[in-house]
Design a protein that fits this description.
15 helices, single chain, alpha/beta, Aldehyde Dehydrogenase, Chain A, domain 2, 2 domains, seven-stranded mixed beta sheet, binds NADP nicotinamide-adenine-dinucleotide phosphate, Aldehyde Dehydrogenase, Chain A, domain 1, about 40% helix
């Protein structure tokens, strides 16, 4: 496992994966801790979660720097990520008691109720793109509910993984309630099969989702999968083009385009296609790449060189299949994993970019004759994570948003996650939900209590 600064290619640290004895100890500790943690009053667990939020805020600058050095995102985005983690901790510390309150139900019993009990130890297999946020949006609700958590983080962010474990420890959580496992992907199935593990959540790619779901299915364990996306961004002829273009740039190029809910397919109706493209091209060409620690830089490097190579191959193939390069479309020279801010137009069925997720700073434009064709194209995707519609006619926007096949549809706004709203997808984007009361109920036993 290697920590490599993607902006420079410099190896920061190499970390030895754990041996079987270390893994065995962590699994045992987590199981013991889960029993004690579940027995504590929820108010006590929530109080510790508030403490986690404070430690995150106290360490915001150093943690943000750690993120930027290890996976390359812009320092201001890294700071915002840490603040969002503190927010989700505060949110569940405040709301968890109500979300998990017992519900009396009138039946033929003397008393009957629905109660919510933790499942035990939950494994989180997480990606590098939001190396703190992805972990906290799992951990805050799962721990508030009384589970213990094990983290198998992406192999390129071991420093972030260890810093998160340390943070929970320093905030005062009992030993074993949250542990980081330093193991490669090949040993995840062994952890899932372990009888001490109750459930697993994965955020990552489709292939990783398939293998985690298969291992969990074989041992009948609950899973939540948050997988890839290729979110449509539908621009209708009556859209506010200035707002649509500035949001298109923010949504597509944030985190060097490496966000599951980034707008990826810009589906523009013909009457405004040229105007949109012209303004979009100007704004994209104004992005400036460079050292992500530099506050004035607006385009970060990609997180790994191999991911950049994969993205470039998707671009090359799509262009060979008939798409048209508008700007960019080349890796940047130098030791960093930079890729030019790119737009490809005239993307159509049969091209890789039409069906595959492009996880990097490349926007694809698909032209549609009208609203109904735009909707058909938007839903013609194996993915179903988010989507947005741009129109000044609110009723029209809502009508289309309701017909988008996805987990989150926005009208005149950038698709984003928010602790108060459920987050997740349909189709190959996965299943289950994170955040809001839906997220905290994923890893609990919804139990019937019937008393004569
Ligand atoms: P990835 O290769 O699937 O890695 C994600 C995590 O899964 C890593 O911890 C990885 O470990 C592990 N993993 C990989 N293959 C596995 C396997 N066969 N069995 C068990 N674990 C496995 O994904 P990525 O390329 O890092 O991340 C990008 C993908 O994640 C994109 O498709 C993106 O859309 C998706 N994503 C989705 C969301 C969401 O909320 N829906 C959020 C962010 C990202 P190693 O690092 O050790 O391989």
């Amino acid at each position: 496992m290697k920590s490599i600064n993607p902006a420079t290619g410099e190896v920061l640290e190499s970390v030895e994966p754990w041996n079987e004895t270390q893994l065995e100890h962590a699994l045992e500790d987590a199981a013991v801790a889960a029993a004690d943690w579940a027995a504590r009053p929820i108010a006590e667990r929530c109080e510790l979660l508030r403490r986690v939020a404070s430690v995150l805020r106290e360490r915001q600058e150093s943690l943000a720097r750690l993120i930027t050095l290890e996976m390359g995102k812009l320092i201001k985005e890294a700071r915002a990520e840490i603040e969002k983690c503190a927010w989700v901790c505060d949110y569940y510390a405040e709301q968890a008691p109500a979300f998990l309150a017992e519900e009396p139900v009138e039946t033929d019993a003397g008393r009957s109720r629905v109660i919510y009990q933790p499942l035990g130890t939950v494994l989180a297999v997480m990606p590098w793109n939001f190396p703190f946020w992805q972990v906290f949006r799992f951990a805050a609700p799962a721990l508030a509910a009384g589970n213990s958590g094990l983290l198998k983080h992406a192999s390129n962010v071991p420093r972030c993984a260890l810093a998160i474990e340390q943070l929970f420890r320093d905030a005062g959580l009992p030993e074993g309630v949250f542990r980081t496992l330093l193991i490669p992907a090949s040993r995840v199935a062994r952890v899932i099969e372990d009888p001490r593990l109750a459930a697993v959540t994965l955020t990552g790619s489709e292939p990783a989702g398939r293998s985690v779901a298969a291992a969990a299915g074989a041992s009948i364990k609950k899973t939540v999968l948050e997988l890839g996306g290729s979110d449509p961004f539908i621009v209708l002829e009556d859209a506010d083009l200035d707002l649509a273009v500035s949001t298109a740039v923010a949504s597509r190029f944030l985190n060097a385009g490496q966000s599951c809910i980034a707008a990826k397919r810009f589906i523009v109706v013909e009457p405004v296609a040229e105007a949109f493209l012209e303004r979009f091209k100007t704004a994209v060409e104004a992005l400036r790449s460079g050292d992500p620690l530099d506050e004035t830089v607006t385009l970060a490097p990609m997180a790994r060189h191999d991911l950049r190579d994969e993205l470039h191959q998707q671009v090359i193939d799509s262009l060979a299949q008939g798409a048209v390069a508008v700007t960019g479309c080349q890796p940047e020279p130098g030791p960093g994993a930079f890729y030019q801010a790119s737009i490809i137009d005239r993307v159509a069925p049969g091209q890789r970019a039409y069906r595959e997720e492009l996880f990097g700073p490349v926007a694809i434009v698909i032209r549609a004759a009208d609203e109904s064709e735009a909707l058909r194209i938007a839903n013609d995707s194996p993915f179903g994570l988010g989507g947005s519609v741009w129109t000044l006619d609110e009723a029209r926007g809502e009508r289309l948003a309701r017909r988008l096949q996805c987990g989150a549809a926005f009208v005149n706004g950038m698709v984003k996650s928010d602790p108060r709203l459920p987050f997740g997808g349909i189709k190959h984007s996965g299943y289950g939900r994170e955040l809001s009361w839906h997220g905290i109920r994923e890893f609990v036993n919804v139990k019937t209590l019937w008393i004569r």
